[in-house]
Fold this sequence. Notes:
Structural class: alpha+beta
InterPro entries: Serpin_sf (IPR036186)
Protein name: Proteinase inhibitor I4 serpin
Distance between the termini: 50 Å
Radius of gyration: 23 Å
Number of domains: 2
Number of helices: 9
Amino acid sequence: MSTLQDSLARYAARLHAAAGPGHHVASPLGAWLLLALCAPAATGAERDALADVLGTAPADAAAQAAALLAEPHPLVPAATAVWQRAGQGPTDWQAALPPQTATGPLPDQAALDEWAREHTLGLIDRFPLRLTPQVVLALASAVATRISWATPFDVTPAADLGPESRWAGTLTRVLRSPARGHRGWIAADGAAGDVIVHLAPARAESGAGLAVVSVAAAPDVDRAAVLAAAHRLATGAVDGTDVDRRSLFDLPLGGTALWELREERLRTRATGGREERHTAVLPCWSARSEHGLTGPGLGFDAAGRALAGRLGVAGAEVEARQSALARFGRYGFSAAAVTAALELVSFAPPGVARTAELRFGHPYAVVAVATDQRRDGAGAWHGVPVFSAWVAEPQEPSADDLADPPEAD
């Protein structure tokens, strides 16, 4: 059985290819969940088609979806529903749906819109499809999150994106990663080449959290390769590993379109007297997207045929869409904490430090990954990519982004 992360990465490649090269955000997980619920209804050619799209056997996909719904994530509320027109009797497929999936008679349009609002934290206020008298069955999934960074970004001049970035000339201010609390590194990817990676975390008290990972490659690298690298690196990084990290001491000093590498003499306790540091500069961005899901390779045509067969409806057609939005800014998480620090004041031996400033100054990929580490092991959501985006239209920081952080009580 393929891992859920592998299956979602494969589906994300299909969905982002269908979305095209422009600025957009999507939830491959949201679409995949719905297909996984439909998969047990399929037989024959439809079953084979869904297995290919889902990246695993239909029964395994259904079990993975049920596990996610059975263990709600505190930062990523998810919901699914299956409604049918009055007079249509339930099928054995509907009886086997996860108990968390809402079922019942088909609501009216206002109730569908309210369902969308309720299950997306109020972020999306309209159901993606309009109800007509011809509709006999409606299925829906919702995935949402609203987080704040455990440590907020600083604000810096857009010129810090570097001389090769056209965004440096169109923006005035961008974000800089804080001295502590975020992670950054340069990774080697077989298809995308050397890429820069930045990870901004948010964490809940339960140990479950969300990490938003930005990945940029050289400007001429194919978008699909960058998105694939982002999914691979993001799902691997949530366990605290800087996946495929390149040593800064194996790279030449100076600047590229992706980073500026400098060296300084100092005292350090780093192994071998060689210390590596990373900072990141990247823009604010937001996106609102609508995706049609009935195109080839996305699975909803096969799912529609399978469900029509179960319902005994000849010649039924399927319409499927996804509404998605996202915003990446300076702040997120407001909290107070007491932290103990051990400050060492004894002199360290002499050494050298290299600092790489990672510059997200041209279109790049973003993947938001759920984390769920527990004392008895990882939960069902750990490492699951929830949203992904292609960032091609950066924005100025908002007034809220530029405001000073609130002082702790």
